Predict the structure.
Amino acid sequence: MEHSSDNACLSRSQQHALETLSKPVHSHRILPQTSQIKKASNSLANNISEEGYGIERTTTHLLEDIVPALNGQALSPTYYGFVTGGVTPAARVAETIVSTYDQNVSVHLPEATIATTVEDQALKLLLELLEFRPESWPGRTLTTGATASNVLGLACGREFVINEAIRKRRSNSSTSRIETVGDDGLLAACRAADITDIQVLTTMPHSSLKKASSIVGLGRACFHRVSRPQDVIKFDLDILEDRLKRPNTASIVVISCSEVNTGMFATHSYDEVAALRALCDMYGAWLHVDAAFGLFARMLRNSEEFRYIHGGTEGLELADSIAGETSYTIALYLYQPKSR
C-alpha cells in the first residue's frame, strides 16, 4: 500500500467484513429496505470528478451508502432469489490472497510464478473428486461462468466437425494444405468441407447454450429438438440419427445434465450415453454435455437415496467436452482428445 490511508481503509473494510461474518446466520437481513436502495441510488455520482473522491471518501461511501442496500444472498440460508450461492471460509481466504497478489494464470511462466501450476493441480484434484481420470482430460480450465464454458464447448465442437469433414473430403486429394476454421474463417472452412448447414441437436437446451451458439457464429436457429414426444428431456435415437444422416451437414450433440429450470437429466445410465457416443462417432459429430448444475452429482455416493441423480451423470466420461458450474461466477470446462 502506498499511503497510511490506504492501509486504514483496507483495515476498515476488512473489519466490517469480519464483524458481518461473526453475526449469527439467522440475524442477517435477506433484502434491504426500499429506503436503503433509494438512498444508495441517490448517493451515486452522476458525473466524474476531476479530483476524484479519494480512497477514504470512497470507502465511507461504499460501507455506509452502498452496503446497506445489498441483499444478503451470500449470508442468509433463506435467500432463494438467485443461484449465485454462498462463499465458503476457505474460498474467502483464497479471495483475499488472490486480490493481493493479482496473478495472471492464463500465461504459463513456470520460472516466474507457481500460479498456473496451482490452478491446474486444483483442476486435477477436482477431476478426481468427480471420478474422472485427469490424464484423459488434458484440456481443462476455469471460466467466468457456464455460458463461457458452453461457448468453449460449441467452439471446439464447431472446429472439430468442420475440420473432420474437410479431412474426409481431402483424404484422396493431393492438396497438402487443409483449411481450418481458426486459419481461414468459418465460411471458407465450410466451403472447403462442402458443409451447407451446422446443427446443434439436443432435447431441452438452456438459454445459455443458444447464447453460446450465437457467439460462435452458429446462430440460435441451428438448434433442433430430437426428443421423445412423451418425454421431452430424453433423446429419441431414431430422430437423432435421421438428423445426423443429413448430407452436407455438420452436427454437435448436446446432453442436458440436470437442466437448470427443471432439474431433469437427458440420460440416466452409461449405456444411454454410450449409444449417443456411437452415433456421434458414426457420423462425425461432437458430443458436448451441459452439466452446469448436474456435474457435481458425480460426487454423491451411488446409493438408493441418490440413485436418480447419480444415474444422470453416469457415462459423462464418454463426452468430448463438458461444461460444469462451480458457482455463478466460476465454471469448469473440460475437453478430451478425440483419439481417446
